[in-house]
Specification:
The complex is a heterodimer of chains A (294) and B (301). Helices cover 41% and strands 16% of the residues of chain A. With 294 residues, chain A is an alpha/beta fold. Chain B is built from ten helices and twelve strands. The structure holds NADP nicotinamide-adenine-dinucleotide phosphate (NAP).
């Protein structure tokens, strides 16, 4: 029997519904969570992504404040602006849309965001806390996949072997930190898409997570029967029959792998839709934490 | 490291001698100290109570500091110190210009919150790399101090000619001070790292099968001789971080053994670290290295 499809769109709708309810509770205590975003320069992709976040925020009842700064903005002014947002009691979550223009030191910018408002989880303190097994915000991508696994009944991975084909700061490393937590306890192998004899690793995986950005990179002969396959790939593949001239494809050769899998995420409609939802969830969480202490 | 064989050829040393690697590191540090324009690096060691098992580690630090010319002081706080008093002590050390590095002897007594104490150590002086900010930077591949045991394992491998690059490293143990930071160091795309890394713990099924797939096997679990020969592949490199006190069967006296069943594993491994005399001395040497690096950074500013 082909594997269950882990439907990110549906899960994302469920979570957003829950978030709306949590926002209502907060509003009863006169707190409306607010997400502040900063975008610098005129990258069209970034601009449309920020609009998406803004729209999603409104949809669950969050306030948002998106600030669009000119391409030639300075590092110093940006840091000042972030510090202002850190101080404002009405702002609960802050993100800076990446990539920044070349004159910026990204690491210095991200380190300026207060860890309490760091809803993207990029601050080294957030990363470190998560790695140490402490409560903290984690980047939306790994947060999304963990939420998806939990809600699909795969929250406890004790005695399972997770193989992550990616060692980036956005996916592989923070995900390894989460899978290593006591409560999840997968046994983890971190490898790179170019690791020699990659199939030897992927075939051992009970949970296989791939973020390689190579279309149909993982073929059915590279996975074992009963795998849970998670695909982060977003490859635009030329397609003359499609209206836009391309279609979206993941890193996993979906249909054949699904035949062997216990569960699998599709592309599109898998982990993608979870990402923005997790950003909203983190903002609500930040507001709840603040409300709890005050 | 090569040893001369009976017929005058050379072969890789089977036993990785941590003491001689540590001595080489200390020699290099003396050279770096000479370039400090007379500034003396300082290391403050904060100890709660008088746990006897920590004494030999602490003695090693003091002796190592003396050998390379680092100024060191051990501050003892009573076992029942409050969180507030501990954090005050840390904050005084943060602003004390005699000290470039601060370490906190772990574990702390039960009633204290170690994460909060570790977070109180200034990242500039966090030579044991336990502040969450330091841990985060380590994982992100940014410049920071590496926890000394994990750093030591990497150095030991590289300096004994067994670079982890491109190899499969299996780490048994996911503690915050050894297993996790070591995994974080070895996955970075850097010379001396860039390995495929597997992290195992008590939630791992078929541990022997996984350890047998290791080119390099690191044991950091704290179970005497738990890594047996059948868990090791012919030709693997085995690093033993464990320090366990057991009763000697012959004499009835306490003695130290590692997590690896040394004699049997040495038959199969191409190289193995002994306990004592393996990772222990290198750990101390890396703490000294971090302290000198902290002083260099301050001077450069
Ligand atoms: N050489 C040095 O300088 C140095 C420095 C520090 C520590 N050490 C020594 O290194 C050892 C480990 O120290 P630590 O602080 O990391 O210990 P720890 O905090 O007790 O962690 C032990 C780790 O090993 C795992 N583990 C335990 N039994 C296991 C088994 N049978 N199979 C697989 N994994 C197992 C545990 O898994 P769970 O997480 O699932 O419980 C845990 O992650 C100790 O002997 C310690 O004395 C030496």
């Amino acid at each position: 029997m082909p594997g269950v499809i882990l439907d990110g769109r549906q899960l994302s709708r469920d979570i957003r519904q829950e978030l709306r309810e949590r926002v209502t509770v907060l509003a009863a205590g006169a707190v409306v969570p607010k997400l502040a975003g900063i975008i610098v320069g005129d990258d069209a992709g970034s601009a449309s992504y920020v609009r998406l976040k803004e729209k999603a925020a409104a949809e669950v009842g969050l306030l948002s404040e998106m600030c669009h700064l000119p391409q030639d903005y300075t590092q110093r002014d940006l840091l000042t602006r972030i510090s202002e947002l850190n101080r404002r009691a009405d702002v609960h979550g802050i993100f800076v849309q990446l990539p920044l223009p070349p004159q910026f030191n990204e690491s210095a910018v991200l380190t300026t965001i207060s860890p309490a408002k760091d809803v993207d989880g990029f601050h080294p303190e957030s990363v470190g806390r998560s790695w140490l097994g402490q409560e903290s915000f984690v980047p939306a991508t790994p947060a999304g996949i963990m939420e998806m696994l939990r809600r699909s009944g795969y929250g406890d991975l004790r005695h399972r072997h997770a193989v992550i084909v990616n060692v980036d700061n956005l996916v592989g490393k923070p995900l390894a930190a989460l899978l290593c937590h006591e409560s999840v306890s997968a046994n983890i192998t971190l490898c790179h898409p170019d690791t020699p004899c990659l199939a030897d690793w992927t075939r051992q995986a009970d949970l296989l997570v791939v973020a390689a950005n190579r279309p149909r990179f993982i073929t059915a002969d590279m996975v074992k029967e009963g795998v849970i396959a998670v695909d982060f790939g977003t490859n635009y593949v030329e397609d003359t029959s499609a209206k836009q001239g391309y279609h979206l494809e993941g890193d996993i050769d979906f249909e054949p792998v699904r035949e062997k899998a216990e569960a699998i995420t599709p592309v599109p409609g898998g982990v993608g839709p979870m990402t923005v939802t997790m950003l909203l969830a983190h903002t609500v969480e930040a507001a709840e934490r603040l409300a709890a202490v005050s | 490291m090569l040893v001369t064989t009976w017929n005058g050829g050379t072969m890789p040393a089977k036993i990785i001698d941590g003491r001689s690697i540590a001595a080489a590191i200390r020699e290099e540090l003396k050279g770096r100290m000479a370039a400090l324009d007379g500034a003396v690096p300082g290391l403050a060691v904060l100890v709660m109570g008088d746990d006897p098992s920590a004494q030999s580690y602490l003695r090693g630090i003091t002796r190592g500091c003396e050998a390379v010319g680092i100024y060191t002081e051990t501050m003892r706080l009573p076992q029942d110190t409050t969180q507030k008093l501990l954090e005050d002590a840390i904050s005084r050390l943060n602003s004390d210009t005699r000290f470039h590095g601060i370490i906190l002897q772990l574990p702390l007594p039960e009633h204290l919150n170690s994460l909060r104490a570790q977070s109180a150590v200034s990242p500039d002086k966090d030579v044991d790399g336990t502040n969450p900010v330091s841990c985060g930077k380590l994982l992100l591949g940014e410049e920071t101090f590496f926890p000394s045991t994990a750093y030591g394992v990497k150095e030991l491998l590289v300096r004994s000619g067994h670079s982890p690059e491109g190899r499969h490293v299996v780490i048994c143990g996911r503690s915050n001070i050894v297993g996790k930071p070591l995994a974080g160091i070895l996955v970075q795309k850097r010379p001396g790292a860039n390995a495929t890394v597997t992290i195992c713990h008590t939630g791992t099924r078929n541990l022997p099968e996984i350890t047998r797939s290791a080119d390099i096997l690191v044991a950091a679990i704290g179970r005497p001789r738990a890594i047996t020969a059948d868990m090791v592949r012919e030709g693997a490199v085995v690093v033993d971080v464990g320090v366990n006190q057991v009763e000697d069967a012959a004499t009835g006296k306490p003695r130290l053994v590692g997590d690896v069943d040394f004699d049997a594993v040495a038959e199969k491994a191409v190289a193995v670290t002994p306990v004592p005399g393996g990772t222990g001395p290198v750990t101390t040497a890396m703490l000294l290295t971090n302290t000198v690096a902290a002083a260099e950074k301050l001077l450069a500013r």
